[in-house]
Structures are given as structure tokens and as C-alpha cells.
Amino acid sequence: MFEKIFNGDLPLKGTQVAGSWDSLYNFLVWLSVFFFLLVVGGMVIFAMKYRADRQGAKAKYITGSHLLEAVWIAVPTVLLLIIFAWGYNVYRTMTHAPADAYEVRVIGKQWLWTFLYENGRTTVNDLYVPMNRPVKLIMTSEDVLHSFFVPNFRVKQDVVPGMYTSVWFEPTMPGKHRIFCAEYCGTSHSGMIGQVIALEAAQWKAWSAGKEIGPVPQAGLELTAAEKAHSGAAGAVLTLAERGAKVFAAKGCAACHSIDGSARPGPTLKGVFGHEVEFGDGGRALVDENYLRESIERPQARVVKGFQPIMPTFQGLVSETELSALLAYIKSLK
Fold it and tell me: How many degrees, rounded to 5, is the angle at CA 220 between CA 214 and CA 221?
């Protein structure tokens, strides 16, 4: 029962180091429970035993006890040294990546994650990694301080502009694991969300070769009926706009652009296609395929009036196929 109380809300254990941190956490919890019961229980017992209205009750006057003083100095000291050694050992393990770790470069920027792989591939917000193999992330920031945090892996590391930091993990649970930015980095900080997609050996080989791998479930869950319906095995074919919706989600576009007219750091995309927009310099343009392509690849060229030039370029990060699908999706947002 107590284990369920203390562990019920912990994230899934997606790496070996997650189990190590959880063991230390449980030790600290149970140690706290023990001393709480010892101190508070003793206080209640003594308060009842030596209460003032009890006939003939008189506490013994104690002038001092060297043994008692030695015990309450020695016990906390030993416990603190155990906690320190335990924590340092886990920390040292998670900060020294194996020499054969698969390296991925990570660039944080407002408000998305860009991942650069050894095989030349680039993804935005989706980090693809192999199962049961050490993965080392070498990270930096293009703008402000960010913090790369994967709760299921129990790893978190600041991402600092002008320098490189690193963290490593070895996924042991397949599926999607959420990535958060754990350092406030501006207006859409809460929308700077990605996912680590841990793949089995066959899927990783296919993905590395640029092949389709089909849908991947959230870690610890099965594919939903909708995901199964759209899987390659089911033979379903997505429309160009539906594929564009997936690109829109995968590239983190929703962090700055709404599709329902609500306010975001960037212009809403609802009903924008076919209408004129006004720029900060007073110019105007019709929103068509060419304008949208320019806005994705060179977003600083013409900034819509009332908005800041904060969008990063996606030139080279979106393939021609993805770009075509994305334009079809934007065009469908009536």
C-alpha cells in the first residue's frame, strides 16, 4: 500500500538510471517516514506520560548524557554520508557517457528542439534513438537558456547559449517519451515540448535508412485504434493535408501558430490562405504558396505587422515532400 502511495505518481522507468534515482528517492522517503514516526511518536508518548495533570507524575531531571549526544551526532552523519555517496555514484554514472555512445547534436531555440544525427538526418521536436544503446546528446542554444528534461528517463540538463553541455541515457522502454523545457525561456515556454522516440532494432535500422516505420505508441501503451488504422500494415493512405497536419505537429509549429484563430506569438493560420496580410514596413502581400514557402524558409524577410521576428528558419529542415504537405494543410484551414 505504502509503495503505491509513494511510487504511484512517478513517471515510467525508461532507462536504467531511472531505476537508480527511484531507489535513492524511495530510501529518502522511507527514512523521512521513520524519523517522523520516531520524533512525533515519541513526542506524543512523552506528552501523555508526563502531562501536568497526572497525579504523582514527575519527570526525572537529566543533566546530560555523552552517549546520547554521540549517538545523535554519529547517526545523522553516517546517514548523510550514505546519501551523498549514493547520489554522487548515480550522478557520476549519468554524466560519463560510454565511449561507444551514439551522438546526437541538439539545438534549443524559442520554442523548439532541433536534432542533428550522425547519418545527416535532421528532425524537429522528435528525437529518434535506438533501444538498449547508449545515446549521448551534445547540446547548445541559439538564443536563451533552456533545459532539456525527459521525466521517463530521469535526465535533465541545462542548454546554454555559447557553450556545449551533454547528457546521456540508454533507453530500455520502446515508444514515445515526452521532452520538456524545464527552464522558463519566454512566451511559449510551456509549448516547447518534444518527444524521444525509442525504436526497436528493426525500426531503428529502417528509420536510419530513411524508410517509413509507421506509428509508434506512447511508452507503456498500445497503439490506438486511429493509429492502427493509419499504420502501414493496415494499408491506409493519408491525404496530402492529413500528412501536412502530421508535419505541422512534428515540427512544433503549434507552439507559435494557432489553427483556430486564437492568439499566439505568431500569426494564426486559420483562413489565412488567399487573403492579404500587412507587414511592419507597410507593405502587403497575398498569402499563396510562394508566400508561405518564403515564410517557412526565410521568415525574417517579411514580418507580419504586430508580430516580432522570432521565427527560426526551417530551410533545409523540411523536405520538398513535407513542404508540399504542410502547404496543403495550411490551405485547408478555413
Answer: 60
pLDDT given for residue 148 in this prediction: 94
Here the CATH number for the domain that contains residue 160 is: 2.60.40.420
Q: How far apart are the first and last CA of the chain?
A: 53
Together in a domain, 262 and 171: no
Task: State the pairing for strand pair 194-199/126-130.
Answer: parallel
Are 191 and 154 members of one domain? yes
Cβ(326)–Cβ(248) below 8 Å:
yes
Region 163-172: mean pLDDT is 88
Given CA atoms 121, 227, 181, 266 in this order, what sign does their dihedral have? positive
User: 72-94: buried (b, 16+ CB within 10 Å) or exposed (e) per residue?
Assistant: eeeeeeeeeeeeeeeeeebeeeb
- C-alpha 224/C-alpha 193 separation (Å) is 21
> How many domains, the chain?
3
According to the 3-state scheme, what is the secondary structure of 277-311? Answer: EEECCCCEEECCHHHHHHHHHCCCCCCECCCCCCC
pLDDT, position 149: 92
Dihedral Cα 8, 175, 134, 165, nearest 10 deg: -80
137 and 91 in a single domain? The answer is no
Question: Does residue 139 have a pLDDT over 70?
Answer: yes
Looking at the fold, whether 211 and 270 belong to one and the same domain comes out as no
User: What is the Cα–Cα distance from 293 to 310, expressed in whole angstroms?
Assistant: 17
What range defines the domain where residue 294 resides? 242-332
Considering only CA atoms, which of 243, 247, 248 is closest in space to residue 269? Answer: 248
Say if residue 147's pLDDT is above 90.
yes
CATH code, 320 = 1.10.760.10
What are the pLDDT digits (tens) for 202-222? Answer: 888 888 888 777 778 777 666
